[in-house]
Amino acid sequence: MKIKDPELKLTPKEFGLKGNISSMSFQSYHVKKGLFGVKKLGKGAEFLTQSSQHLKFKNNKLVMEEGQDIMDDYYKNEYEYNNDGDVSVIKHYSHHPLTKLITPTFRHEYNYLDNKGLEDIHLNAGEIVSRMFFTIENDLLIKKVYGEFNELKERHQFIIDKNEKIHSKEEYTIYDVEFCEGETEYSTGKEFLASRSIYNYDNNGFLKGFTDYTCDEEDGCQENYKMEYLNDSQGNPLYSINYEPDGIVEVIKFTYKYDNQNNWIERKQYGVEDWNETNLKYKSTLKYVVERQINYE
Questions:
Q1: pLDDT tens for each residue of 66-97
Q2: Is 28 exposed, middle or buried (0-12, 13-18, 19+ CB in 10 A)?
Q3: Strands (E), 203-236
């Protein structure tokens, strides 16, 4: 398996897109259904980290990403690749808080170490802020995070299948000071499991759910959050069911319009009440709409 950051999306396929894509843009809206149709109340949707996004691809690789988050803060990333087609630099830009001019903020530089590892250096104004190092150890993908003084701060380990899908992720914290909490001693350099995530897929390779756990030394790992998806034939969720330790806390319904490449170009989100998974009888209210424009080469 080629060593890379498993959580970094760079191709149309990794963004869930089909076909030879040149660009994709979306805009989300908070809506209300009235007597005269659907009225757009404002931009943004609670299930997205961005209210809008634009992706540009070249030769099946992401070269530019820009958009606004739910707080209307602008961001832009530019991607560069080496001769092997691997990402080498990511440049990040944002609006200056005073002048509102688009200015560079930080960058990632990637060094490939003869398939023995991958180094991701995070720089701000030319100074190293952090460094991540990826290796394969005992069939696990390991990510180690180092601080600006080259101190080891975190260790993550992933189980990844041959199709590069993540099946589990564990995050370990490494303490740089000594202290006690209850009967637990935290010594310098000792690592503790902080969280665990488990991902499940159906026979077609579509994500059908995940479970997040929070962990500590005294109580071990406790289920914190669980999500299940009921997908359509394209792998997009028709329903998402959100569980917390006390049971179901939210059910969301989605409907889609597709183009002739089977990419969705409109997604509607409904809040669901009186959920009954057995017979799918419930009340639903339209809350959000996402519109996508997809261009093909």
A1: 987 656 678 899 999 999 999 999 999 987 66
A2: buried
A3: 207-216, 220-231
